[in-house]
Amino acid sequence: MILKKHKRSAIRCWAGRAASQASLLLLAGCMVGPDFVPLDAPAVSGYVRETSLPPTSSAETHAGEAQAFRMGRDLPGDWWSIFRNRQINDFVAEAIQNHPDIAGAQAALRAARENVLAEQGALFPQVSASSSATRELVSPATLGQTGSGSLFNLYNANVSVSYTLDVWGGTRRQVEALQAQADYQRFQLEASYLSLTANVVTAAINDASLRAQIDSTNDIIKSEQEQLTLVQRQFDLGAVARSDVLSQQSTLAQTQSTLPPLEKQLAQQRNQLMAYLGRLPSQDRGEHVSLASLTLPRNLPVSVPSALVRQRPDIASAEASLHKATATVGVDIANMLPQVKLTGSYGGSSLTPDKLFSPSSAAWSAAGSVAQTVFDGGTLFHDKEAAIALREQAFASYKSTVITAFQNVADSLRAIQADAKTLKAQLAYERSAQDSLTIARSQYLSGAVTYPSVLTAQQNYQQAVIARVKAQAARFSDTAALYQALGGGWWNRMDQTAQAFPRTQAGLFQDH
């Protein structure tokens, strides 16, 4: 949202710079070294063994909706809005605005683009101008003579031009390498956005889960407290043994002991959420999300594998690193070849300013040179071989990143399927445990069972309630993880701000 009206002009400017660079590459002749070719996506049609994934199972509770996988659908840029929760939207907007990692990534991208423009200057002649005025007293003794010295003024003006011919394309390869580095920083910026937004959403969901677990635990404590009052009354009447009262007190104390760990987790989760928002822990204003306020999307977009390699910022960053390593090989090969340089100067010297630019005061020179390293102890050769090895390393790293990305998507798909089944099973378990507890209490009052049966039913019900809450939260977290694994839709929004574009002395953006 920052400086929104300037974004398009900034992008056009950067595109113009890139086009200018491409024109230079086309016009300047040969460039030694390998040319980078974008890599093909893996030749697979899906992420799991099945040719298609059926909808998930459903459960009759909140977050129990069946979810269908829609292969080939695009992701929205504001993917976090799928949960239809204003507080999550506000959290994400605040994090993007305030988190220093985002500002640092914007600045790193600008620095990389400035480096490209700086290196492009080496493709043009370097022109320098100088002038001087000197008042000088010369002693005749320097000439082996006697007498008084000679006092005079001397004026000089000179323009020098030098140009290193990029015969082998070494400079152009260096520009290419720096442009690849700028591409890397661009995708690192997108990776920062993706990581931060996913972390904020997950933290908000975890916060909601812990609050729901605490609320459920308090409800159970209240129920067990009422049960203790009932048993205590029966004991006072002589209807039950003292051991039954002690057993219920023990169960109540055990349930109460589960609250402090949950409250500790919630406090630490709040601190983490504040950090994502760019706040300090003491700046927590208490805003939070409840599980009941979240909506589970019924349709989940799943990018085709051929699109994933262009959408994942980590894959794009790895490809940019490979591009840079490939261009660097060309730089080191060019350094081994003869370097051609042209120089020239024009100027004048005069005893008076008015005659400084007269023909009689003119002086000029022109020269050309060719330099070739004859012996360097193998330095240039091994520099080139090291660059080749780094290119091989970058290629291996790229393949590893692709494998991990496909694994992330497959893991998310399996988690969504499995956790839908888990919630359905946990809901059935909770209802069964609740019925068992009701029956156990009734049977105990009628004398059909002993009190340990009631205690066992209480513990089972407590565990079932907490497990169901966790299963509900897992469905929201798994959905967020899928959107993160698919790249987060950054290509459908504008994440680069004014801080990501090169500057000029006249203004914030490059004039074009």
Structural features, described:
It is a single chain. The protein is an alpha+beta fold. The protein is built from ten helices and six strands. The strands form two sheets. A four-stranded antiparallel beta sheet has the order 2-3-5-6, with no helix packed on it. Helix 4 packs antiparallel against helix 5. The longest helix has about 70 residues, at about 380-445. The two termini are about 20 Å apart. The model is unreliable at about 1-15, about 20-30 and about 510 (pLDDT under 50).
Instruction: Give the beta-strand count.
Output: 6
Cross-sheet strand order for the largest sheet: 2-3-5-6
Secondary structure class reads alpha+beta
Distance between the termini: 22 Å
Search tags:
512 residues; alpha+beta; 4-stranded antiparallel β-sheet; two-stranded parallel sheet; 10 helices; elongated; disordered N terminus; disordered C terminus
Give a quick summary of the entry.
By secondary structure, the protein is α+β, with helices and mostly antiparallel strands.
Question: What is the secondary structure topology, with strand pairs?
Answer:
Elements (H helix, E strand, L loop, with lengths): L3 H24 L40 E4 L14 H13 L1 H21 L5 E13 L11 E16 L4 H67 L5 H15 L2 H18 L22 E4 L2 H7 L1 H23 L3 E12 L11 E10 L7 H68 L4 H35 L27
Helix pairs in contact: 2-4, 3-4, 4-5, 4-6, 4-8, 4-10, 5-10, 8-9, 9-10
